[in-house]
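Human: Can I borrow your eye for a moment on a structure tokenisation matter? Separate attempts, laid side by side, tell us more than any discussion would. Could you pick a protein and write out its sequence and tokenised fold? No explanation is needed for now; the record alone will do.

Assistant:
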Amino acid sequence: MSSSGQRVRSFRWWSSSPPSAAVAIDAGRVVGVSMGRSADGPVVSRQAAEPVAAGVVTPALAQHNVSDPDALAGAVGRVLDQIGRPRRVGLVVADSAAKVSLVRFEKLPSRASDLEQLVRWQVRKAVPFPIEAAQLSWSPGTQTGQGRELVVTVMRRDVVEEYEAACLRHGAHAGVVDIATFNLVNLVLAADARERGQAPAQGDWLLVSLVHDYSALAIVRGTDLIFYRYRPAGAEEPLADLVHQASMYYEDRLGGHALSRVVICGGEAAREGELDALREAVSSRWQCRTEVLDVRRIAPKADGGQVAPEVWSALAPAIGLVLRGA
């Protein structure tokens, strides 16, 4: 999460060129990727995955996330060794470490300092810690007749520093820290942009991200995020019901008429029967296709080697971070 709220397109939150390598950290593992290009588009030059023992990392909004900094730094170091020891990386963390809010403003101040104060004032009641202890990023959302929406992401500053420190111990500077679901969206947008050429993005679509300890839904209109929901693991509410509620909100509050598709990432983390129920819920409401995000089609391995499906899913947000704004 950078301190800047600037955006060029999609969810790009830095003014310099994006890094060519990224690291993703969650409760079970650290993964890393370095990217290159071929004549056909982006390719994965190197990738790595290292397990993390239970309890070393516990992504959460209101508490310290890293209980064993040495163990986490060790895993990060091994990943960095395998992807070429980059000095500049993007860093992806689990959605559960942050709070996402879509906040509508009638008018935005022109001065950046005034805008930051306004954003902090608006989201202060949405986080369970003092807003003075928060690090924020924001990105323009949709423009409506009632003003402009901002997509605001909040993390505790000391939690951001916990994750950054694991990289810094090995000489890698995390120029941006961001959450996983946003960069899955960016990965899909990057793939779509390559297929469209210069044509503008159109239509509404739903991303369903399934991770072992949470699920997240995001609805995108063109390149703008218009809806986000997070569900922790163990929630009694079935995923299909969450999708149904999202569809009702989409139609009643967001002026939605039809989704062009539903993209699922991380299907191997789904509970038994969950994907079938999800597809049935989608097909009963919209006549649109349901597809599983195929990272190999978007950014294949440069050497043609094989990677386990669950590792591809874990790498997807890191790849999306590198490709965002590409």
